[in-house]
Each structure stands twice: as C-alpha cells, then as structure tokens.
Input
Amino acid sequence: MTTKQLDAIRASKQELIDVRRLVKEQAEVLAKNTGYRKQVLVCGGTGCTSSHSMQVIEHLEKTLKEAGIDDVLIVKTGCFGLCSLGPIMIVYPEGAFYAQMTPEHAETVVKQHLIPGGSIVKELLYKGTVLEDGSVIPFAETPFYKKQMRIALRNCGVIAAEDIDEAIGAGDYAALEKVLTTGMTPDDVINEVLASGLRGRGGAGFPTGRKWMFAKASKGDIKYVCCNADEGDPGAFMDRSVLEGDPHCVLEAMTIAGYAIGAHQGYIYVRAEYPVAVERLKIAIGQARKYGLLGKNILGSGFSFDIDLRLGAGAFVCGEETALMTSIEGHRGEPRPRPPFPAVKGLFEKPTILNNVETWANINPIITKGAAWYASIGTEKSKGTKVFALGGKITNVGLVEVPMGTTLREIVEEIGGGIPNGKKFKAAQTGGPSGGCIPAEYIDTPIDFDNLVAIGSMMGSGGLIVLDEDTCMVDLSKFYLEFTADESCGKCTPCRLGTKRLLQLLTKITEGKGEPEDLEKIQELAEHMKSSSLCALGQSAPNPVLSTLAKFREEYEDHIYNHHCAAGVCKALLNYTIDKEKCIGCGLCARNCPVSAISRTDYVAPGHKLASFAIDPAKCIKCGVCMNNCKFHAVERK
Amino acid sequence: MKQCEAACACETLGTPEQEAQLKALIEASKSTPGCLMHILQEAQGIYGYLPMQVQKTIAEGLGISLSEVYGVVTFYSQFSLTPKGKHPISVCLGTACYVKGSDKILEAVETQLGIKCGECTEDGLFSLDSCRCVGACGLAPVMMIGEEVYGKLTPDKVKGILDSYREETK
Output
C-alpha cells in the first residue's frame, strides 16, 4: 500500500466517523453526505456480549430487513465504558444512548426511532440522558462522560472493531505514516516520546522514551518489541477494552517503536482468558498484513516489521516483564534477575522493549498531535491521561479515562455516580494485589503516579475498586494474599514462603484467633519480603496488608481483641439467627436458602398464626440471603 | 479428589483422529521458537486436558525432556491434568466480584453440587473451578458455565441455573 491509498481510505471513512464524534447539529448535516440516515453503534465488548449484545444486533438486522430499511448502518464496536448498563446501543446523529437493551427493545427502537420520520424512544434511554423536563441530552453530556478525556480510548466504542478501514478513518496509522514518510529519524521519534513525558501504564510508571532510548543504544542486528497484554490485576480491564475496541492502534505503535529502536519483529503476549480480544487481534494482524501496514517495506519506506501473537495460560507473574519474556520463549514463566535489563538482554537474549497496551495506545496521539500537546495534560511529573477500571461498590461500573491529577472524589462521586444503596465511601483500592487502599480522608488527593505512592498505594495498571462500609479491610488483605500466595511462582524464598506465612497470620485474625503480637510479625515479615524478593510480585505482595494496617489498624485490633468484624464479613465471627418472636412463619427465607439450612420449628409466637423458622448453624454458609429476603427484620446478624 | 472417568486417555493417545491431530500439530509448530506453550494449548483443545501420554508424545516430538513439559503444564493454571465436566463452571473471584460477594456464590455452587472447587461431579456433568476476572466486572458477581456468562448473581439464583443444565441433559 502507498501513502496515497492510505489517505484515500481515510478520506472515504472520515465523514462516517465524524458523525459519531461531532455535536448533534453538525453531525446531522454531515450524516446527509454519508449515505446513511442513521448509524447504530452496538457494544461488542466482553461486558456487553456477556449480557447478550450479539442477540440485539441479530434482532436489529432482522427487523430492519423486514421493515425494508436499508439506509441504517449497524456497527459492532468495542467498549463504551459504562459496562453496568450493558448491552449499550447509541444511535447517531442524535447520539441517543440506549441502555440494557434486549432483542424486544431493539425491535421497538427500529419501529419507533429508526424508521423514516421516527423519534427517540425515551423510555428505553439511559436515564442519565433524560433531563427532568423530558429533554434528551447526548451521552457525551452526561456526568459519566463529561469529565472524561479520551486519548487511549479515543476510538473505543466509536469504530467497528473488526474493520481496518474504519480504524484508518478514525486516525489509526496516521502516526506511522508521519514517522515513515516525512523524514523523521529514529532519534526524532524517541525524542518526541521522551518530550511527551509518557510513563509506562503497566504499573511502575517508568518513562517510555527512556526505555526506547536504552534499547536503541544496545548493539545488535536482532531486537524485539513486545506488548504486555497479560492484564493480570483482577478487576482491571482497560487493556482488554483497547484490544477489543481499537486493536490497530497497538499494532501501529509497536511498528513505530520497531522503527525507533531498529527491531523487525514484535510479539503481543495476551491472556488466553480474553477470547474476544485474541480474535480481534488475529483479525487486525491479518488485515494489516494484507494492506502492507505490517510486513516488508511498509508504505514504501524500506522498513519491515511484523507482529505475532503469543497466548498466556493463566499466570499472574507473567505480567512481570522478565517472566513474560521467559513465557514467550515457551518456559515456566519465572522472572529473571535484573540486570541485565531487557533493553540490553531480553527476549531470546536480544535487546527488547516491553510496553503495556495502554502505553501503546498513547503513541499515535503523541506523534500526530505532538509531544507539547500531550505534555500540557496532567500533572508536573505524570503527563497525559489514565484509564481506570471503576468497580466494586459504585453506581457506574466501567472504564473511565481522566487527565492525571483528577481527584478521587471527582472519579467516585461525579463520574462514578457515588455509592449505591445509601452506603458510605470507606476507601478505594488501587493497584490490585500490588497496591493499597486510599481511605476516605484522602478523597481530594489529585491522582497521579507519585501522589498515590506518597499516600501508601500505587497506580498499578489502573484497577480502582470502591469499597463501602460493608467491606472488611482485614478480609480484603487476606483476599489479596490468597491471590499472591497462589500466583507466586516459587522461584525465590521470600515470596514463596512469605506470602504463605502472611496469609496464615491474616487467616488467623479473620477467624478470631489473632494475637496482639501478630501485627508486629506481619509488619516485620512484610518489610523483609519487600526488600529481598526477586521480582515485583513478591516485593509488592505485602502492600495491601501494609497499607490497610497503616490506615485501618483499629479494624485489625477489633478482630484480635474483640473477636468482632464490624463490616460483618468474616464468617467465623458471625452468626445468623432468627428472632422467633418476630418471625411470622412465611417461609421465604427457607425457600431461598441456597443450602437448605432453615427449617420450621414448633414454636408459634403470640399474635402469629404459623410456626417460626430457625437456622441450623452447622449447615449455614452465612451468605445473608435470608436476611436480605426477610421483610419482617426477623433475621439478625451478630 | 474425585475425577471424571469419561474419555480417559491416560495410556493411549485417544482416538486415531486425536492422535493424528496431535502429531500434525507437533510437526507444524516445532520449528517456531518457544512453541511449547502453543502446542500445549492446542493439545488441550484436542483432548480437553493434558494426559500423561500426550505430554510424553510432545516431549519426544520436540526433543525435550518430559520433566520440562510437565513443569510448564503444572506452572500455568489453564492447563489441566484431569478431564473437565461436560459443563465446566468457573466462578469469578476477581476483586470486583469478590467485594460483591462471589465467595458466597462459590460456596452455594459447592453445596449444590456436593463437590469442592477443582473437582468434578461423579456423573461427569459439572466441574468446578474459580478464576480471576473474566472482565465482566460490570455484571459482578459472575460465573461462567461453558462459554455462557451469568451475571449479577446471588446465592439463591445458583440452584435454578444449575437445574436448567441438569434438565437439559435428562
């Protein structure tokens, strides 16, 4: 492919995509040129496909066909971000945001909205887009999207994820074109990335440009470019969304890096647990090869680069850079000591750079819009934006991308819509099993790499789990330790044994058998693990315990001294009973008990007609279903 | 631990088709650097798990030791040494699901099926595992049965879901 052909594809798709990006009035004018009266974007990300968005698409196509409508374009996109409202569907040029769609709803939308002269079906819209006076706002104006700034996610939920032409129309490969055909030298590229201030989004925040600089300086004919798509932090899914929504932006950025450091082969190491992302990557690589955007002599520049996929097989430690490379080589994914650093001796012992998906997704805008523009966003030492996977006890679960320096309060209360069920914000967990908890008193801290470390947590890959008063911090620490103990590769002793011992101590405390000196033991062991483990997994495994111990010590003490779990989570310290005087004998609890632990007694309370129920403590799994179901508040938790 | 008896390929390489597929796979991949993981993943696709005889064949085909193959198989959680049930169940224990009570979902499934996590029911119908994040955090807590994702679960919904699979096989 020549640059002329690339430009022609971009020009042919640009208006179609602009309709989805522009404000309503402009979009309506533009839509007339595209040949499509309406465009219907349906989310085909994992979250929405799990709630059956493919059936919605099938039904849309069928109903449109039956109605003889052929000027409506249906586009299967990647993730829009608001996963808790899936399946999501947006109709342009209006920007009407339909949520929790079903095949029946799809039929209604076709018959009332998509037909010529139709109008928006208000009752099926996401409630956040319908104002009190009944007027409808586009989704971009809702609190969830308004505060966001989408750079890495710029094309997610905007383009058809399996169509390279749409990706090109949306700007993908424009940066590669600039790099290869306007006389940029490899040093120019590296200097641009350096000047942007971009730091690795995978966890540690190492300056990306410096990594590239080191790898370029390494001597050797064979070098490699790797993409870390082994998103291991449970609860973080931004990398998956980029791969599902805009896979070409990663291929493009890796090719640019290959040019900059002098590599001709790239590998993407992706979790096998992400079947949709794997499939879309395969399609994208095939399309890019066909167009000559991967392969020999790209865009006539004489530069050649190709990319292969490698599938992970479920090992958290493979997110660590040296372990990931060992795994690509086909071995047990155990980390290697550093130095030598991968930039000197990495994959197959050759100089290698490894960046994570979100980092790659920032490269195109840095090259096309310039380092100065990128560096103008964010805080002094953390430039650009960060994508967070907002989850846990929060109204709007999903992906949000905000400029660095946005406060936790803005994310939780404004974008996230606050805590559901009238509960109180207790803390936010960031950085997953390597991170820590940010208590409510720090809710106004501007979030960036350095501030999070200063308050005892870390950015990590961007999982942000909101916790309310029903979360027990001791139990949460135990949860993370179970994870790291399970995922420790076993190569070094401090991590292999340390995680096990820490877990034992925490288990003891959650069972009410903790002793006062346990807290000192935890502290000491944790410090040793931090200083002597081989890789980041062991060094950071004690972080969840240390951070909660520092900020929520009274909860640990409550478990140890009073054998009490205030959040009502630690099962060994809980008992569910039925107040026989309050129980009217309706049996709702017994019918819903998943383990048949509730049965009728002989006792009929005064004023009631039926005998009351009782819980068999030996069978009870303390799930709380009975308590949630009882309308008479007869079930008590102590 | 209870294991599924069905389709045991401990001593043989399964059906002639399976054996041919495996050998073709090894032949096609063996010149690619770092191909062991890929071969194991595909082989698990053919057999449903990785019986010892299959591992031996792969080791011989690649000219590496069986201990190296076994070492890789046991390192990664996705590889299984035992067969899975007809409907493999995977309860998500990722953070977003956990804080929404997925441990109680797992317990409810365990009680309903009478097996522990990592085991298979005697009739071979269900096997039960936990996993770390399927990425459907918006639907937390979730579990997967085969390819199907069940979201926004509560312990009392578990029985009905399992029953629908039981009835399907009747």
Observations:
- Residues 16-29 of chain B form the longest helix (14 residues).
- Chain B touches chain A through 47 residues (CB under 8 Å).
